[in-house]
Design goal:
By secondary structure, this protein is mostly beta strands. The chain contains one helix and 18 strands. A hairpin with a 4-residue loop joins β14 and β15.
Length: about 375
């Protein structure tokens, strides 16, 4: 919710419903944010979030292929397997900011708990305002120490570790009283168990005149490097009492997956109390080098391990070549200076760019959210 000055005490609540069509995944989220100013230069922040997940998701496997179908040339059936998911995620985040002259030091600790996942992460940042505050430079380091738990429904026999670190560097430059340019660069690395413990992959083969369909546990590399670059701009039109924002984000990782995100947003102040912000986002990615909807006919033979040793394979549709579009509108209403309400609707649509991946894997969703913020 915009229009608020930094440094005031505030409490904010937001509700969000993410609803995929055709009985897929639903996520109901509740967020509570508290900000408190200890002194003129020191602020505390607390966030509590609860996400409830339910619905169906593809497991990456398909129904067994019959002898007759295999001999007639049908390698993949039209019937794919789905798993029912029901879980709850509880997140708590603690932050502290402290100003020293034109510099702000920030520290954050975050903890996330699910039935099958536990995460502890720390982040340290420094923000410096230079050249009469026309230029802002930001640098950050984040470390996460996660555990993938051998919960019911997973293919894990024991808990596995996953460690991640991320570096970021940002530059914000005031080009004119109405125009701001932002540039962000990032690098990250993850090591440990990087697979999805719920997903497997099917392989069909004929042996001694009999056709068999075997589902193997997916196998992904146990290390990954990531690179991110983003450029964003915002221009304010005083005569229209509106602002136009646009951005481009490039993402790449060591699995040969590349992503491109384009976003445009128009923020219109309708009246002194009401603003409307429509937006549109387009995303496109290539597939990971080890993505396969099935191992049948690939020349890769499954081995039933997930130990970071090749050959690697995964049928997770989120690693396939795909496009997605997101469009929506946000309404903000401030009846008085210390109180603000927000409503938002968003439409999300994903589709594949490879005929080998079934269209039914790619979801479409409606996202609704509402929030209120009070400053004191």
């Amino acid at each position: 919710m915009g229009g608020k000055s930094e440094g005031q005490n505030s409490v904010k609540y937001r509700f969000q419903l993410y609803d995929e069509e055709d009985g897929r995944i639903d996520v109901e989220s509740h967020y509570l944010d508290l900000k408190y100013e200890i002194s003129e230069r020191t602020r505390l922040g607390l966030r509590f979030a609860v996400d409830s997940l339910s619905g169906m998701t593809p497991t990456g496997t398909h129904a067994s292929v019959t002898d007759e179908a295999f001999l007639s040339g049908e390698k993949l059936p039209e019937e794919w397997n789905y798993a029912t998911i029901e879980d709850e995620r509880v997140v708590s985040v603690f932050t502290i900011d402290h100003e020293i002259g034109d510099h702000t030091l920030s520290f954050e600790y975050a903890r996330s708990e699910e039935e099958d996942y536990l995460s502890n992460a720390v982040t340290a940042k420094i923000r410096s305002e230079l050249f009469q505050k026309n230029t802002t430079v930001t640098a950050g380091l984040s470390l996460a120490f996660d555990e993938v738990l051998a919960a019911r429904g997973t293919n894990l026999l024991e808990d596995r570790n996953k460690d991640t670190f991320d570096l970021s560097l940002g530059l914000s430059q005031l080009l004119s009283p109405q125009t701001i340019l932002d540039i962000t660069l990032g690098y990250g690395r993850s090591e440990g168990y990087l697979a999805d413990p719920y997903r497997s992959i099917s392989e069909v083969f004929s042996r001694r005149g009999s056709v068999r369909t075997i589902n193997w546990v997916e196998n992904r590399p146990d290390e990954q490097d990531r690179w991110v670059a983003k450029i964003a701009g915002r221009h304010y039109f005083p005569e229209l009492d509106a602002a136009l924002s646009g951005s481009y984000r490039f993402f790449s990782n060591s699995d040969d997956l590349e992503g491109h995100t384009y976003e445009v947003k128009w923020s219109q102040q309708v009246s002194e109390k009401l603003s409307v912000t429509p937006y549109f986002r387009y995303y496109q990615q290539s597939s990971a080098d080890y993505y396969q909807p099935s191992l049948t006919g690939t020349g890769i033979f499954g081995h039933g391990r997930n130990d970071g040793v090749g050959p690697f394979y995964s049928s997770d549709y989120r690693l396939a070549a795909l496009n997605s579009v997101t469009y929506g509108v946000r309404l903000s209403y401030e009846p008085r200076e210390d109180l603000a309400f927000e409503l938002q609707y968003e439409r999300y649509e994903m589709d594949g760019r490879n005929e080998r991946t079934p269209d039914e894997f790619f979801p479409s969703a409606n996202v609704f959210s509402a929030g209120v913020q009070w400053e004191f």
